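RETRY 2/3 - previous attempt timed out on the joint model. Re-submitting the same 437-residue input unchanged.
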Amino acid sequence: MLVSNPWPTEALRLAGLVGIGVVVGLFVGQPLTGLLVAGAFYAGMQMRQLARLERWLRRGRSFRPPRANGLWGMIFDNIYRLQRRHRSRRRRLVQLLDRVKAASNAMPDATIVLQGDGEMVWWNRLAADYVGLQWPRDQGQRIANLLRHPSFYDYFTTGDWEEAVKVPSPISVRRMLEIRIVPYGREQQLLLAREVTRLHRLETMRRDFVTNITHELRTPLTVIRGMSETLGDDPDIDPSLQHGLNTIQQQTARMGRLVDDLLLLSRLETGEAVRGKTTVEVGQMVEGLRDEACALSDKEHQITISGDPALVVHGDEGELRSAFSNLVVNAVKYTPDGGSIDIQWHEGDGAACLSVTDSGPGIAAHHIPRLTERFYRVDEGRAADAGGTGLGLAIVKHVLARHGARLDIHSELGRGSRFRCVFPEYQRQRAAAAAGS
Ligand code: ADP
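RETRY 2/3 succeeded.
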């Protein structure tokens, strides 16, 4: 029976017991003994209820509480109610967890929950399939111990997870995974992996196709160029054909540049790490760039340079020269005669920068994000006249990405352009600094 406030009844029961004890004690001339016996009886009753409570709690599984009245009945009922509430909350949580698990298992991406230094806490079914994880064997293992590809290691350790990284699956090199890490909470990350094998195969096919066709074009191009030069050198040639021959020579030279650029780009695109890295003294390279610009400009532009000889970067000298040269050639090509070109190699904002600034026509803001796409041209006519291949800035972007650097373009219509190659990783050579000063 549930009583709203059991204390008055309990107090009455104690008072009654004590009263009876004292009265009986008075009858036999021992009121104190009567009081003690009544007290002991009451304590015995409480002990009995405590023992029932302890037995009930110990058994745990027995759902129903022991029957009792008054204060103890209320205590049993309250514990029982708390227990029921706890059980139903736990059931709801388990159901929720099951639903979350089912949803994450239905996700088209592999998901791994990481914490701290990349310890794996939980993963879904696809993660087990893509990465070969086994529950619970791999729980607590570091992800870097399983995904050992150098690209993943670099990606994971740099902590720059804006972009995704492509790596082969550790269980089959023929399966390509695109992995992205999303940080959340405190030192927790979500690793998401997608299978991109088909896409990767298509990309490789496209690249191979371009490379093969470009290679195949080389031989006929050399023959056409050779023949047109031989014919052009012939003094007896019909003068009416001379103009046509000149055009053939110009166009074959342009196709030759296109073939070279396409081959270079496909080599850069394969994503292989830079081979033959050396310390590149860009300060010295700037001198060569000035000579190149002067030769191309034929004294029509004012060309200035300044280079900090102490600043060096680590990379492929040939690739970097080709990238910088593309920027300088563009500046000369697109800046009208009489304009100025400034080439600088300096340190600023925690990075080393090679900047090429010109006083040319400038580029409208909406073109700038697309300039590094292959064959993207602001002005088809002007670019064709300048004899460009449309691949120069794409090459620059790839070379810089391979060196952990980026290209910043700042330009305003009618006010010229500034192309900056920003190298966050660079060194300042002490000996060179001393020699330079
Ligand atoms: P292209 O071989 O056509 O020069 P690039 O990839 O080097 O190809 O450049 C892409 C386009 O960017 C060019 O066609 C040109 O319109 C524009 N561009 C590049 N550099 C400059 C510059 N310094 N000033 C103005 N426009 C430029």
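The chain has a mean pLDDT of 89. Closing ticket.
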